[in-house]
Amino acid sequence: MGQAVTYPVIDPTIKHVGVSKLRELNVATLKETEDTFVIQDNNTPLAVLLSYEKFLIMQERLMSVLNTLELMSEQKELEGLLAGIKDMQAGRVRSLAEVEAELANKK
User: What is d(CA 42, CA 31) in angstroms, rounded to the nearest whole number?
Assistant: First the structure.
């Protein structure tokens, strides 16, 4: 797996810049920067500029949280999850290799 990529929450790479800073940005500087910019006018935040990779990571994490919340809000799903955790604690588990081998034998 590649290097972990950070995504902005309260990130030390966030820079507050004026709208005029946009004139300095070009393809080369955008490709090279890891910075996230809060673009502001007279100290009023207007927009956020971040890399597309960071944006995708934020979206993925958001979807993960929303999926977890949806799972936890459905009683039947929650009961199944808790039963699975109890099975793990009791040692009623099989390795992925065992499951894959069993599935391969059924084909």
Answer: 27
Strand intervals (E) in 1-107: 14-18, 36-41, 44-49
Q: Which fold is adopted by the domain 14-54?
A: YefM-like fold (3.40.1620)
The residue ranges of every structural domain in the chain are 14-54, 74-106
pLDDT tens digits along 25-68: 888 888 888 888 888 888 888 888 888 988 999 899 999 999 98
For residues 54 and 7, the answer to whether their CB atoms sit within 8 Å is: yes
According to DSSP, the residues that pair with 36 across neighbouring strands are: 14
CA distance 43 to 54: 24
Q: What is the pLDDT of residues 73-107, one digit of tens each?
A: 888 888 888 899 999 999 999 999 999 998 999 87
Say if CB 38 and CB 48 are below 8 A apart: yes
